[in-house]
Amino acid sequence: MWPWVLGGVILLLVVVVVAVAIFVVVGSKRSGGVDVTYEVEGTANSADITYTAPGDNSQSEHGVSLPWRKKVTLGTTVVLAALTVTTLQSGATVSCRVLADGKEVAQSGPTQMIVSCLGSTGNKWPSPTRSRR
């Protein structure tokens, strides 16, 4: 009888350890947000770029050389990733692309002087809150 009890306890411990490991792995992926990659190409020598950065803030980089690429991790509350590119170089074209966890979610261009991309991060929209009046 004791070998069966000991075997049952060991099996229960294995199940608990596996369940905790799965919870930690799934939880860490969710809490980590989404990896967003911004890409810009074009015939322009340089461009000014504004994109959605961590914390749902805008980040700008001025006079960057093309092609340009930036990878950021956006939190789970960021629903849209935006990228805007401008150049003042006459006749030059620019294009943009946004990837969320490796999947293309927005692409635009080539166009002259300015281009924008707006794509979903895959995060859920927050539920509306009710007023307590």
What is the CATH class of the domain at 33-120? Mainly Beta
Distance between the termini: 64 Å
What is the helical fraction, as a range of percent? 10-25%
Structural class: alpha+beta
The CATH architecture designation of the domain at 33-120 is: Sandwich
Note poorly predicted spans: 11-30
Shape assignment: elongated
From the 3D structure, determine the CATH topology of the domain at 33-120.
Immunoglobulin-like
Strand fraction: over 45%
| Residue-averaged pLDDT | 82
Radius of gyration, in angstroms, nearest whole number: 23 Å
What's the number of extended β-strand segments? 8
This entry's quaternary arrangement is single chain
Number of helices: 1
For the largest beta-sheet, the strand count, sense and barrel status come to: 4 strands, antiparallel
State the order of secondary-structure elements, H for helix, E for strand: HEEEEEEEE
